[in-house]
Amino acid sequence: MSLNTTVSAERPHIAFFGRRNAGKSSVVNAVTNQKISVVSDTLGTTTDPVKKAMELLPLGPVVIIDTPGFDDVGALGALRVERTREVLRKTDIAVLVVDGTLGMTEADNALVAEFRERRLPYLVVYNKVDLLDVVPAAQAQEIYVSAINGTGIDALKEKLAHIVRDEKKEKYIVADLVEAGDTVILVIPIDDAAPKGRIILPQQQTLRELLDHHCSVICCQPEELSATIAGLQKKPALVITDSQAFGKVAKLTPEEIPMTSFSVLFARYKGDLDNLIAGAEALSSLKENDRVLISEGCTHRRQCGDIGTVKLPAWIERFAGVKPRFEFTSGGSFPDDLSVYRVVVHCGGCMLNEKEMQYRQKAAQQAGVPMVNYGIAIAKMNGILDRALEPIIN
Description:
Layout: E1 13-18, H1 24-32, E2 50-56, E3 60-66, H2 74-88, E4 93-99, H3 106-117, E5 122-127, E6 142-144, H4 153-167, E7 183-187, H5 201-212, E8 216-220, H6 225-230, E9 238-241, H7 246-252, E10 259-261, H8 262-270, H9 273-279, E11 291-295, H10 307-320, E12 325-329, E13 343-346, H11 354-366, E14 371-373, H12 374-381, H13 385-393
Parallel strand pairs: 1-3, 1-4, 4-5, 5-6, 7-8, 7-9, 9-10, 11-12, 11-13, 13-14
Antiparallel strand pairs: 2-3
């Protein structure tokens, strides 16, 4: 992946919902000018969410998601509807496609109510206006289109672009913590778990953001850190390390130099930092056989020394002095019932969008289960949490 590519997790997620045969997939194809979804008169043609990262003018980089009809029936249909509901967790903008010849149904109104409950910006798109003798005047948050002849499609894209611009918040991983001209050291271990020939996404994104804000960036491995610092004419403004090397890097970084980790920065960037900090306390009170969920947002191939399944469990056992029962999830998988766990330990979420990370934290809060992310947990277990948070909180 090139550094100037906007990753899917950083793109607005625009999801299209609708009853079967409302023309939802046809509208998706018309908006994207691509055959992303299969179109048929047969009910339930879209059986799973279809996701496509793309450049969509005038919106820019987005992720378009087409979903199965939320009125699907039967046992298999219920599973499809559940998959559709899962998409709501990561949706930034919802588009409800309605058959314009039939109008809003009770099911459509229920979905709009859910959008509002979730505080999701949304549009109601009445499709098939080519079949109407008279096109009604559109109300706020409505538009009439025809996926068949293209009527209203450009206007729909303009409306979506307007919502994207209104919803876009200026957020930084690290740039607001440093000044242009500052030197920042990124400590990047290269071990058996490191991907061959590249650096991982949080490191890429942090590096690019610092370069965009005119900082000088030096990358090194932990064993090179002392020499790197000694070779600088002025002290670095910040040292950022991979959380796996937190303990070692903390010892090698002089106290007067601020230090944190990529994962701690992502805790602030994508989630509720205060809640994640509070969640770290649960690690101190674990009991024998407590269930601990370790969840990752990506689905990389596990290797020896994997942080999620090998290193973290060992560190937690040593820190807590007990043997909990560890369970693991990855990618889009996340349990509906978190109440059975004593604590959830989550990765930084670089592969998940902000909406999904906020959903997961909220789900843990509602279940009364503490959640902490990798970086904060590792800093806590190394006794350096206050130091790791100092550059952010101060």
